Amino acid sequence: MHEYVINLHMHTPYSDGFGTHAEIAREALQAGIDVVIVTDHNVLVRGLEGYYREGERKVLLLTGQEVHDQDRQPQKNHLLVIGASRDVATFADDPQRLIDAARQAGGLTFMAHPRDPAAPAIGEDDLGWVSWDVDRFTGLEIWNALSELKGRIKTKLHGLYYVFRPKQIAVGPYPEVIQRWDGLLNQGKRVVGIGGSDAHALPVRAGILRRTVFPYRFHFSGINTHILTPDPLSGDETQDRELVLASLRQGHAFVGYDLPAPTRGFKFTAQSREQFAWMGDEILLQDGVTFQIHLPLITRCSLIKNGKPMKTWENRQNCTYITSEPGVYRVEVHIDYLGKLRGWIFSNPIYVRSVD
Fold this sequence. Notes:
The protein is α+β, with helices and mostly antiparallel strands. It has 2 domains: about 1-255, TIM Barrel (Alpha-Beta Barrel); about 265-355, Immunoglobulin-like (Sandwich), CATH 2.60.40.10. It has 7 helices and 20 strands. It has an 18-stranded mixed sheet that branches. It has a two-stranded antiparallel ribbon with strand order 9-10. Strand 9 (about 200-205) and strand 10 form a beta hairpin. It is globular and about 65 Å long.
């Protein structure tokens, strides 16, 4: 499998962002990102998808949309729609109809920032997801950079502090979101976990101070979604777009916080007597299943089964675990950074099913 780094969920002047598609692509090229997915609010921007190149480097830019009911106050139930053949914003008032319309148009659907707390100090409402009775969606944005920031801003001074100390923000996904994800998985649903930057590159003023919160380049070094593809990206826009969408659809992916250290090279696989599985795959329980975990560097790693820790390794780079029990297994990795133990890698699950 071939690993590529995606930064997704970002905005341009077509909605409420401040950088153009070309500027985003240029920043992504400099940061070494392989794919960026722009998702402006309630608009599907056409004509800008494709490869952007600079010398020998290239980045694939795709466009989707973040859809929500603009008549609802506050505006809940934001849905990331990626890969749809048409604009589906007209279905925003009914989350299930929206999901179904996006699916019919060939799109993937991810609940955006399912927990997004209010930040009254900066005039921000709670924009979390509330319609949990929906079905047939692709996945969940388990870690959203901007939502995590909102949860840390209790006063304007907190906001000012994080504007100038952005590396202190990210600690990990909200526990409530991970619990919700595990709950859906335990119901037998295939729910793909992704990480999003929610980048806007907002300009702010504080007296004579001027600052961008936060530059796209900073987001590109932070919370990314890493995908695994069976074939390498070829440089052909149409073919590579389908490879990216297929990997996201299948959950051949993990969320990596790349600021403390690059997460490229992480592997989580399973093997039985007759099968081999990557993240997102299903494997049958035949005389036991062996999990193999490889970390990019030595740190703390936990294997999670049905939402509960099965095994934690300290100061390890390679971990092995043999199970004879069916269940939904995923991996969480933490790393010490700037004086805190922070989330570093969150894998998608491997589904171990009974033979019966």
